[in-house]
Amino acid sequence: MTIKLMLLRVAGPLLVRVAALSGMRRSRLALVLLNRALVGLALTAVVGAVYFGIIALGRPLTSSAGLVAALVAGALFHPVRVGLQGAADRLFGIERDPYRLADRVNRRVQEAPGPAEALASAVAATRRALRAPGVSVEVVLPGGRSRRFADGEVGASPTVLPLEWQGTSMGRLLVAGEPRDRALLDMLARQLAEVAHAVRLSADLRRSRERMLLTREEERHKLRRDLYDGLGPTLTELALSADEARISLAGGPEAVDPLLTRMRRRMTEAIVEVRELVYGLRPPALDGADLGELGLEGALRTLADSPGPRVDVAVSGPLGDLPAAVEVAAYRIAHEAVAGVRRHARATTALIRVDRRPGSLCLSVADDGIGLPEQRREGAARLRHRAEELGGTYEHDTRPGGGTEVVVELPVKEPA
User: Fold this and answer.
1) Residues in domain Histidine kinase/HSP90-like ATPase (predicted)?
2) CATH topology (fold) of 111-210
3) What is the value of pTM for the model shown?
4) How does pLDDT run across 11-65, given as a tens digit for each residue?
5) How far is it, in rounded angstroms, from Cα 335 to Cα 339?
């Protein structure tokens, strides 16, 4: 009867809490209470058995058997409780050692197939380690986007911790309610910040691959259009002119001479178009032995000397110490802008202006043509992409006197 009363004293309050508490997840609450109930019942049974066993065996021998039993039961209470609690934790998969918890989270991360899966697994392991109703991690991705990894519900008023990796914010950690162990939460937050950094690097790499694929396809599309719309009709016209000259031979050399002159002019234009296509793929003036002789200024002046509308070049500031990537980007932007002026703008003059400023290079191409037709708008998107690849800016506008002006500013890291 006494044992039953002791069991009711231990289990009774737990049952009352099961019925009274609200707002927590039932499965987690039931697991915690069942763990405590088993430990309390087992502890009561073991201590009670020792207590009554000593009384039963020692009462015939001494009158102070009750005192001895009480002392022995009190001495055994703590070590027995610790042992029973450890056994119950192992049974329910609960770990209370913070270092083992961190090691478990680390193992879950290493076993994951990728950074995103690793962070999702680490969030789930963190929730179990903190024994919280919900844990969520929000990772700030490149481009201002964010991605959320959650396990459970964090509720309306969670505890928020910033996730920082080497002084850079990776996002934030949200934990439902008030954490029981703040030191454990800070230690797990540092591990989550490292995994969040890996997720961000993975997203940045994926974004770079997508941009490279987009750039490659745009370059292929531009090359196909240039070959089909530019060089193709020119070669077709040359073939027709050759046939016309062959037929006109019967009328004498005088009839053939104008045709041959026109063919020669069209062949020169075709050679210029082929050269522009080749230079657009790989500017020879900026790559190879010619780099030290021409540089960006010389390459732009060579570009301006090609047949077509008159193109002037104005340079302000030294250009000899520009990084190779900035030189190539500036030349390709100027080359494509001038090609658009010659093909679609119907301009008579154009001006390429290069201004070297502290920490940047400003390039502008202005013309007196008809504006920005649809063909040039497609090229404007490519020019913007080339500038933004290096972290620069691009803009175009209509000039007050007619024509279009393209302005690009590229960042330049000054030499130490």
Assistant:
1) 327-413
2) Beta-Lactamase (3.30.450)
3) 0.46
4) 444 444 434 334 444 555 566 677 677 777 877 877 777 777 777 777 676 667 6
5) 6
